[in-house]
Amino acid sequence: MNKIGFNVLAWSAEMSDNLLPVLDRLKKIGYDGAEFFIGGSPEESFKMIGKHCADIGLEVTAVTVMGPEQNAISPDAKIRAAASEQLKWVIDRAADLNAQVLCGPYHSAFTVFASREPLEDEYNWSAEYLHGVADYAKEAGVLLTPEALNRFECYLCNTMEQLSYLLKKVNHPNVQAMFDTHHANIEEKKLGEAIKYIAPQLGHFHISENDRGTPGSGHVNFDETFKALAEVNYKGWLTIEGFTRNDPAFANSIGVWRNFSEPWDMAEKGFELIKGMGEKYGL
């Protein structure tokens, strides 16, 4: 069975000891790992959380985003350089957490738009930046898995076809693709076909409902999803990512204006869904 994770952004984007009882309960439910947002929390807090996860036997993955001042596809070379330095800092914090994977849409800046389609220069700048930090991440034991987002949050990579195009330009084994069923539900014609398309490059997977609530409560076709994952023999993480208003500053930054589900409803029922689908399709 693939390892099952839960993204604690359902509670908080901040790294603090408030997360410790959350992690204990996730472990009790049966989760193999937890996923954390790497942002502006104090550096020492990452080691504290990483140690607690190690102590209770939870593995770790991580996620991050880049802002407009660290936009890897900016025409300004200084801003592109700032993106590289920021991503190296994030990789260091991921190493503090003992994280295996760093996912997210850091191929470009989150919700920064140019009012046009992506340019070839932008794909080239993004690829140069990702290739430039790939060895640094590998030495830290962190796999980079940039993510395609929906059209309302990103314009460089909305689909698996665009993400694959970027990764072929990156051309580094430590930079692979991430698939998120929430974004794919918006941008892809068929989830199964999109999974099969990206399968040779697929390194991380988010199980997310269409509204970011409890997986299985909406209209994402998880039968199609898990059937395709089994057919491509995917062996990576299956990590639930759902959002709430529990951390208002973070919720405001990503346009979450209401609670879609309670966090523990997401965690408990989502775990049951993944286990059931895994057994059904032999994952």
Could you name the key traits of this structure?
TIM Barrel; alpha/beta; 8-stranded parallel β-sheet; 45% helix; 283 residues
Describe this protein's structure:
This protein is an alpha/beta fold. The mean pLDDT is 97. The radius of gyration is 17 Å and the shape is globular. It has helices spanning 20-29, 43-56, 77-97, 120-139, 160-170, 181-187, 191-198, 222-231, 248-253, 263-281; strands at residues 4-7, 33-37, 59-63, 99-104, 143-146, 177-180, 202-207, 238-240. Helix 4 links the parallel strand 4 (99-104) and strand 5.
Annotate the secondary structure layout.
Blueprint: E1 4-7, H1 20-29, E2 33-37, H2 43-56, E3 59-63, H3 77-97, E4 99-104, H4 120-139, E5 143-146, H5 160-170, E6 177-180, H6 181-187, H7 191-198, E7 202-207, H8 222-231, E8 238-240, H9 248-253, H10 263-281
Parallel strand pairs: 1-2, 1-8, 2-3, 3-4, 4-5, 6-7, 7-8
